[in-house]
Specification:
The protein folds into three domains: about 15-135, no CATH class; about 165-205, no CATH class; about 210-380, von Willebrand factor, type A domain (Rossmann fold). About 45% of the residues lie in helices and about 15% in strands. It is built from 14 helices and ten strands. The chain has helices spanning about 15-30, 40-50, 55-65, 70-85, 130-135, 145-155, 180-190, 220-235, 255, 260-270, 280-300, 315-330, 350-355, 370-380; strands at about 105-110, 125-130, 165-180, 200-205, 210-215, 240-245, 250, 305, 330-335, 360-365. The chain has a six-stranded mixed β-sheet with strand order 7-6-5-8-9-10. The chain is flat.
Length: about 375
């Protein structure tokens, strides 16, 4: 741990690249479940202004002491720090040798941003922005095996927020509407005098989320990432999330997705999917889903997310009819097309033309940043 700054020494203002790196790290922490609020981020930046940003232990402890709000945040912070800075958690200082944590991907800071800019002995401030920021916006289909392994660790930190819906039940709440019956009963117990107004408020319940993931041949480069997103969603709300795969047939993989380890969950799902990298019959499969699952209860009032590029080997008329039917049942329909993230993309395929009139939100799903955006769309829906 770095020595504390001398009392009265002016604290230098962190350079722009340091600020960008800290903001990216705070975003990663929030996805991991740590409430890194803006005031805590400001506190970390103030601490780094008085510390050596090239010293990993100083960066680690500055963030740990300012961004964590309680004991429950410590393990998440350690995991996020290791993932973001591509290193290990710093331990006790060693007398010699290189520091344990190395910051990755060079991005030197500009000079002259602090109070000591005229001191010739002041070392040039430099920080290496994490490769995670670059990886977040890379197309999943273009990643190397090493980058895919890094992406798996990022998915382990993703915690999609669950959309909520109002419930018919109400619970006591001091800021809710007046509950006449409870107020009268309380008054009768005190001799008929109303001494306190009893209030209640309608409860909120998780809204069901249904993911239909296309595992056909044209979607093969993105199927693994989409299923990992489904696993993260099931991990967050196992009782209100359903995952199906679609291609030439419909396969429910919710039970497999409830396995805690994502690699085991995907391996079990792969064993259950008989049409992996096959053809695409979206209209027929969607009809099978609505007949067996959606019409009964699964799709009613739910946020239904269809992950497909829209290639349809069957008739597009059937797909259009089933999408209209799905739109009447669901609370919101989200269509995820990985090709939408490419420059100049236009939804010209017959399947997309038939589906889009019944879609509420049309988003891309080609990168980690796109999956984070998708999580926000589902939550706001």
């Amino acid at each position: 741990m770095a020595d504390a700054p001398t009392t009265g020494a002016p604290a230098t203002r962190p350079a722009r690249d340091v600020v960008d790196t800290v903001l990216g790290f705070a975003r990663t922490l929030r996805h991991a479940g740590v409430g890194a609020s803006p005031d805590r981020v400001e506190a970390m930046l103030s601490a780094l202004g008085a510390l050596d940003v090239l010293e990993p232990r100083a960066v680690y402890w500055a963030g740990r002491l300012t961004l964590c709000g309680g004991p429950d945040d410590l393990d998440r912070y350690d995991t996020a720090f290791a993932v973001y800075f591509s290193g290990r958690r710093p331990r006790a200082p060693r007398p010699a040798g290189r520091p344990e944590v190395q910051l990755a991907t060079a991005a030197p800071l500009e000079q002259g941003t602090g109070d000591g800019e005229d001191d010739p002995e002041t070392p040039d401030l430099a920080v290496r922005a994490s490769a995670e920021e670059v990886l977040r916006r890379r197309d999943v289909a273009e990643l190397t095996p090493a980058e895919r392994e890094h992406l798996r660790r990022l998915f382990a930190l993703l915690v999609p927020a669950t959309p909520m819906r109002p419930s018919r039940r109400r619970r006591p709440d001091p800021r809710g509407a007046v509950h006449p019956a409870r107020t009268v009963r309380r008054a009768l117990r005190s001799g008929g005098e109303v001494t306190r107004l009893m209030r209640h408020r309608r409860q909120s319940r998780p809204r069901r989320v249904v993911l239909l993931v296309d595992v056909s041949g044209s979607m093969a480069p993105y199927a693994d990432a989409l299923l990992r997103f489904g696993h993260a969603a099931v991990r967050g709300r196992p009782a209100s999330t359903e995952v199906f795969t679609i291609g030439t047939r419909l396969t429910r993989v919710t039970r497999e997705m409830r396995l805690r380890d994502p690699d085991r969950a995907l391996a079990a799902s792969g064993s259950a999917i008989a049409d992996w990298s096959g053809g695409t019959r979206l209209g027929e499969v969607l009809k099978a889903f609505l007949d067996r699952w959606g019409q009964r209860s699964t799709a009613r009032g739910a946020v239904v997310v269809v992950c497909s590029d829209g290639w349809e080997r069957g008739g597009t008329d059937l797909l259009g009819e089933q999408m209209v039917r799905l739109r009447r049942l669901a609370h919101a329909v989200v269509w995820v097309n990985p090709h939408k993230g490419r420059a100049g993309y236009q939804p010209l395929t017959g399947g997309m033309q038939a589906a889009l009139p019944s879609v509420d939100h049309f988003v891309s799903g080609h990168s980690m940043a796109a999956f984070e955006e998708l999580a926000g769309v589902i939550h706001r829906a």
